[in-house]
């Protein structure tokens, strides 16, 4: 055995449909000395196709099953603490991230009871309102790991599938590696690294995307342009928070309810 | 040539005298041509040409008159939001649905194709196949898609298959005859080449890859072999025969690969709906979505196109 090994250099790739392809454009860029894939609009197109394909299966999974999968994400994160440490995520933030995955995992089979209702009506009917996923959600994610978790987990737990334009690429791709080994079905989360300003307009204008979360957009002019493009097919738009992004706060239910649609059913009581 | 060949009884020696197909070569050639990049204005032209080449197909046991009527309306005006979108080449249905489609398509220039001859297996007596064909033509079909008896072909009874095609061609009258080789069941490229020649010698106006009812349908290499066959056949006899890949072509990208294949193998003469067709159903929506993307500048979604 030679005493020195050849080092294994890592290229951080995209995460689309459950696999880790390079950008179809072949482009990469350097982030802190690491090679990272630079996503193109065609990667974005492929990601939306993958998300759409995965959507009915994920929305149709039982809430209990979705909760288990999110809990599994937390388990796998726990096992990778050291790796996230080397990427600059401090222990306190990682604790908060893992706790947040578990918090959202718990909501999977409870949000329906809290946000749905049995409505009193004047007639012999059961009148039930139940929340349903919006569909494919495009997310421009903030750079911090807790921020990424705080926009990704609520979209997933409610049965949506997600296309994420990542802020900090190494942490985001490492999270994708966690998701890929956590029983998250391929296509439920699709993650693109690169310049959000290049790909986000295509995401915002895409007719097969149902909601757009702009939490990670810091430039107000870009946010306004994206919101305008999103109006084309009446996407739900979540604006960047006006009071800054302190993700350590209790997120409340709003991140989940913003990505749910209410379906109300009238059913005759028969007496 | 056709008559003399058959009378001489040397059909077998002609078919087995065809040069063998280089399997690795044909697959490599098809794969290499599939990497061509077609963009912007060329892509827009390719999409419109592909739309004009579509045989919009529904061949399900669950077909209803309502579904066939809706599909026929879609054939005339594939994208209701855009009058510049051309109509498709034809509608392809079962014989029982021909009169329904004929009503909608009458006088429109969109052809009406019907599968016949005990589609998809072809396992029926000749009399039944001929009656099937006559009924479809009487109902208003101007194109007949027949299946060959693969069992007879694989057993080496070439005369039997030849005579069947000749008889069906006669029953067609003025209607165009497309002969389905069902390449997925023929096993080898050599057989595909032989079946192509057999069908052309017997009088086929078109040779078609597949029924779409077996796991392996149209592929690029198979279509390449068939395109070479129609090219060589025209060089030998002066008669031009069309080609129709069917089944498994679902995306614009796939369709454009076929167009490249035509251009590089047989040239401009076949780049027309008169000589090349796509047997497809879901392909049309993908073509329309790509077309919409080029005109609007943003990606389209399936929610904005019909469910067929």
Give the key terms.
heterodimer, A: 271 residues, alpha/beta, Aldehyde Dehydrogenase, Chain A, domain 1, five-stranded parallel beta sheet, three-stranded mixed beta sheet, 42% helix, globular, B: 308 residues, TIM Barrel, eight-stranded parallel beta sheet, 11% strand
Please, could you describe this protein's structure?
The complex is a heterodimer of chains A (271) and B (308). Chain A is α/β, with parallel strands linked by helices and 271 residues long. Chain A has a single domain (12-268), classed as Aldehyde Dehydrogenase, Chain A, domain 1 (3-Layer(aba) Sandwich), CATH 3.40.605.10. Chain A is built from ten helices and eleven strands. Chain A has a five-stranded parallel sheet, sandwiched between helices. Chain A starts with 10 loop residues before the first strand and ends with a strand. Chain B is α/β, with parallel strands linked by helices. Chain B has one domain (2-296): TIM Barrel (Alpha-Beta Barrel). Helix content of chain B is 50%, strand content 11%. Chain B has helices at 2-8, 11-17, 23-33, 40-53, 65-76, 98-105, 126-139, 150-154, 158-172, 189-201, 220-237, 252-265, 282-296, and strands at residues 54-57, 90-93, 111-116, 143-147, 176-180, 206-208, 242-244, 278-280. In chain B, strands 7-6-5-4-3-2-1-8 form an eight-stranded parallel sheet. In chain B, helix 10 (189-201) links the parallel strand 5 (176-180) and strand 6. In chain B, helix 3 crosses helix 11, helix 4 (40-53) crosses helix 12 (252-265) and helix 5 runs parallel beside helix 6. The radius of gyration of chain B is 19 Å and the shape is globular. The termini of chain B are far apart. The mean pLDDT of chain B is 94. The A-B interface holds A 45, 48, 52, 202, 205-209, 229, 232-233 and B 297-304.
């Amino acid at each position: 055995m030679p005493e020195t090994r050849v080092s294994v250099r890592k290229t951080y790739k995209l995460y689309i449909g459950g696999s880790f392809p390079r950008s179809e454009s072949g482009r990469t860029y350097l982030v802190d000395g690491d090679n990272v894939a630079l996503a193109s609009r065609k990667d974005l197109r492929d990601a939306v196709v993958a998300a759409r394909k995965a959507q009915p299966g994920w929305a149709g999974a039982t809430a209990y099953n979705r909760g288990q999968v999110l809990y599994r994400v937390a388990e796998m994160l726990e096992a990778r603490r050291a790796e996230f440490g080397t990427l600059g995520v401090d222990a306190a933030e990682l604790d908060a991230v893992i706790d947040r995955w578990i918090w959202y995992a718990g909501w999977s089979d409870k949000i329906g009871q809290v946000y749905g209702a049995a409505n009193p009506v004047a007639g012999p009917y059961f009148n039930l309102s139940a929340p349903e996923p919006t569909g494919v959600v495009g997310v421009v994610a903030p750079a911090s790991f807790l921020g990424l978790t705080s926009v990704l987990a609520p979209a997933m737990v409610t049965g949506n599938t997600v296309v994420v334009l990542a802020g900090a690429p190494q942490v985001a791709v490492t999270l994708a590696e966690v998701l890929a080994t956590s029983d998250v079905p391929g296509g439920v989360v699709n993650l693109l690294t690169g310049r959000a300003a290049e790909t986000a307009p295509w995401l915002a204008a895409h007719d097969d995307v149902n909601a757009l979360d702009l939490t990670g957009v810091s430039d107000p002019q870009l946010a306004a342009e994206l919101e305008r493009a999103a109006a084309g097919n009446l996407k739900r738009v979540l604006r960047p928070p006006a009071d800054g992004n302190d993700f350590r706060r209790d997120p409340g239910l709003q991140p989940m309810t913003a990505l749910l649609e209410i379906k109300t059913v009238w059913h005759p009581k028969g007496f | 040539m056709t008559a003399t060949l058959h009378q001489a009884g040397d059909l077998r020696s002609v078919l087995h005298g065809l040069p063998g197909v280089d399997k690795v070569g044909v697959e490599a050639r098809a794969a290499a041509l599939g990497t061509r990049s077609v963009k912007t204005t060329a892509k827009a032209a390719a999409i419109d040409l592909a739309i004009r080449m579509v045989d919009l197909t529904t061949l399900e046991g669950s077909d209803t008159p309502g579904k066939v009527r809706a599909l026929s309306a879609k054939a005339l005006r594939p994208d209701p939001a855009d009058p510049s979108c051309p109509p498709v080449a034809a509608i392809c249905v079962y014989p029982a649905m021909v009169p329904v489609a004929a009503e909608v398509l009458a006088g429109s220039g969109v052809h009406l194709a019907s599968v016949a001859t005990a589609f998809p297996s072809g396992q029926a007596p000749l009399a039944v196949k001929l009656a099937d064909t006559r009924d479809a033509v009487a109902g208003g079909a101007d194109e007949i898609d027949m299946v060959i008896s693969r069992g007879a072909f694989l057993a080496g009874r070439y005369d039997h298959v030849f005579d069947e095609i000749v008889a069906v061609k006669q029953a067609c009258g003025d209607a165009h005859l497309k002969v389905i080789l069902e390449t997925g069941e023929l096993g080898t490229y050599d057989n595909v080449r032989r079946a192509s020649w057999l069908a052309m010698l017997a009088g086929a106006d078109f040779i078609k890859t597949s029924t779409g009812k077996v796991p392996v349908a149209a592929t690029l290499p198979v279509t390449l072999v068939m395109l070479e066959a129609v090219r060589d056949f025209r060089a030998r006899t002066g008669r031009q025969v069309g080609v129709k890949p069917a089944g498994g072509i679902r995306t614009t990208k796939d369709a454009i690969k076929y167009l490249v294949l035509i251009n590089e193998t047989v040239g401009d003469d076949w780049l027309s709906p008169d000589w090349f067709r796509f047997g497809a159903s879901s392909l049309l929506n993908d073509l329309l979505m790509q077309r919409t993307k080029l005109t609007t500048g943003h990606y389209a979604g399936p929610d904005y196109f019909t469910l067929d």
